[in-house]
């Protein structure tokens, strides 16, 4: 997972400036171009929790990452378990 490795490299460089490095994925306009079948397929077959995330889900993770004084270099997936699947 490239963002994980990037985060681990970036975190020590930014720690001296009290900047916490924690990437994530946020729904963008890219997703608006999906067919109606794709989100349905994802919910049924790829997303373990079978529901889409909400802005409140993202906000809770952001709050945790920005208020915890010892957390840095973390990569938190807000993907309903989709990232747990392995590609063979």
UniProtKB/TrEMBL annotation:
InterPro entries: NAD(P)-bd_dom_sf, SDR_fam
One Pfam family matching this protein: adh_short_C2
The protein's name: 3-ketoacyl-(Acyl-carrier-protein) reductase
């Amino acid at each position: 997972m490239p963002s994980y490795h990037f985060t681990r490299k970036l975190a020590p460089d930014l720690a001296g400036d009290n900047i916490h490095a924690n990437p994530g994925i946020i729904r963008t306009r890219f997703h608006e171009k999906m067919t109606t079948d794709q989100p349905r397929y994802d919910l049924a077959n790829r997303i373990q929790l079978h529901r889409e995330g909400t802005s409140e889900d993202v906000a809770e993770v952001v709050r945790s990452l920005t208020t915890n004084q010892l957390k840095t270099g973390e990569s938190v997936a807000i993907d309903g378990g989709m990232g747990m699947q392995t590609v063979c």
